[in-house]
Amino acid sequence: MEVEMAAMASAIGVSVAVLRFLLCFVATIPVSFVWGLVPGTLTKHVYAAASGAILSYLSFGFSSNLHFLVPMLLSYASMALYRKRCGILTFFIGFGYLIGCHVYYMSGDAWKEGGIDATGALMVLTLKVISCSMNYNDGLLKEDNLWEAQKKNRLLQLPSIIEYFGYCLGCGSHFAGPVFEMKDYLEYTDRKGIWSPSEKGPSPSPYVATLRAIVQAALCMALYLYLVPHYPLSTFTDPVYLEWGFWKRLSYQYMSGFTARWKYYFIWSISEASIIISGFGFSGWTNSSPPKARWDRAKNVDIIGVELATSAVQLPLVWNIQVSTWLRHYVYDRLVQPGKRPGFFQLLATQTVSAVWHGLYPGYIIFFVQSALMIAGSRVLYRWQQAVPLNIVKMILTITNFAYTLLVLNYSCVGFMVLSMHETIASYSSVYYIGTIIPIILILLGKVIKPAKPSRSKARKEQ
């Protein structure tokens, strides 16, 4: 068996460890299909917990499940023993343990050298235990003091231990997300809320939506495997790279970022297929006649939205969507004082938490600080764009914001890919730090040129 796996791994250019992970990851689709067929609430929880633990064992070994138990049990204990502060306690416990594992395993280096570890799954688990604890904490507060997301997701009762384990280890999202709420998980397993029988007929079929996600995953992986030999990350420290002209170096940064994103598109498409086929991916009905089923609960990326984003502000809404939503609900919004508007501090703090969640590599920290600058600069362009009365000027500013987003995103993401300080600085300096300087200039100009704020629709308030 090992000989066959070694031959297969060699044929597709990955290590045996990565191949084993990929096989177990793809296996979440049939395993999740069975989860949707399991009768009874208790058996669904048991199946979710057991299948997630077994796939983790096959992927990462026995120690992975021991690592998962630490934040799970400590979080559950904080909810059971100290509800009044369980949210903040779990936040620091979860992130503290995750950071310790990041440091111990040096997961970024392992991936780059063809290895793999359980920290990716632990990252998803950390967000789950924190959101569950914070929502249980919110259950103590008066509804008048809560915003809409808190009202929707708060937990009035402590979930049972088997419900909690099923939620944390559910195989469809355990490896790579998406993150979802405990309340949604409980309603799905209990067949309540949007999953309860209704006048709109039986539960909708998930098969067409699942097939669409699988086909998307296959196309994304094919494109990634085609592109990656042409744009290796090692080129950034190759002497030949420095001999190129400015525009060629800048275009190589774009193509490197473009290539790397297809790997993530593949991963999230598989996760989406896993959640959809279980039935949990159902997110309600459209208002059309006749109504159609929506399957975007597990949607973690809008590929076209990322590649053609006309503003950096749009990126959190189309890239790693569920984690971006988590960061907004459990970091960004909770840092805003009552009666005050969020500002750059909340944005920077949220991006810093995101960086630490990914790992302590300098490339991650630099990338997410860069992201805060990128978004802040894009907001300045957007304000100008909305304030000008002439359509031609508005169009020019829209195109400028699109070009700005394209430039700064692919400049910034090099740090996320190469991880080390040396390689990140080498890449940034090779294009004269253009992706750092332009956002700073825009932010400073935004302090001087302050157009009157136009009336905006609710759809535009995110900007």
TrEMBL record:
Q: What Gene Ontology terms for biological process does this UniProt record contain?
A: lipid modification; phospholipid biosynthetic process; triglyceride biosynthetic process
Q: State the Gene Ontology terms under molecular function.
A: acyltransferase activity
Of the GO CC terms on this record, one is: endoplasmic reticulum
The places in or outside the cell where this protein is found are: Membrane
Q: Name one Pfam family in it.
A: MBOAT
Instruction: Classify the protein's membrane topology as the record does.
Output: Multi-pass membrane protein
This protein's UniProt keywords: Acyltransferase, Membrane, Transferase, Transmembrane, Transmembrane helix
Transmembrane regions listed in the UniProt entry: 12-35, 47-74, 86-105, 207-227, 264-285, 361-382, 431-449
Top-level taxon in the UniProt lineage:
Eukaryota
Q: What is this protein called?
A: 1-acylglycerophosphocholine O-acyltransferase
